[in-house]
Amino acid sequence: MMLQGLDVIELTNVKLLTREMTSEIYALKGMLLAQLGRSDDANKVFSAAVQMHDTLVKAWALWGDYLEQLFTRDARQISLGTQAITCFLHACRHQNESKSRKYLAKVMLVTEVCVFDLHNGCAWRSQVYDQQMMYYHVHLAEVQSCLVRTC
Predict the structure, then answer these.
(1) Which of the chain's ends, N or C, has fewer CB atoms near its CB within 10 Å?
(2) Which tens digit of pLDDT belongs to each residue from 90-108?
(3) What backbone phi and psi angles, to 5 degrees, belong to 139?
């Protein structure tokens, strides 16, 4: 069934679609490739999807979910956790408060598992400052306590 879905996506003429639609199709292709166990191809396609349309929440969220799954299988690969956090924060960037809560919860969950070194912790904090802070003021105490426990 997944191979058939991948075939349909491959046959889609993306030249007729908008950049947002094309990006969403690429994100779905990445999800299918991930489910088929083609990790390298999935990463490349997710990367292409977000480069095509940087504000497409669905692409960032699907990529973050994929990276989170990989990270939960092997928590020693901290870079996968930090990449998942980055994807979830990008997904939050263009959402209102109620929709971004789901991704903030995922950020806190992955942060609980990660043991950040100084560089990764600083990179995470710089991503937070890029977000619309008015949406996160309610969650700042939780985020801060997660960072304190893991740094």
Answers:
(1) N
(2) 998 888 877 888 888 888 7
(3) -100, -5
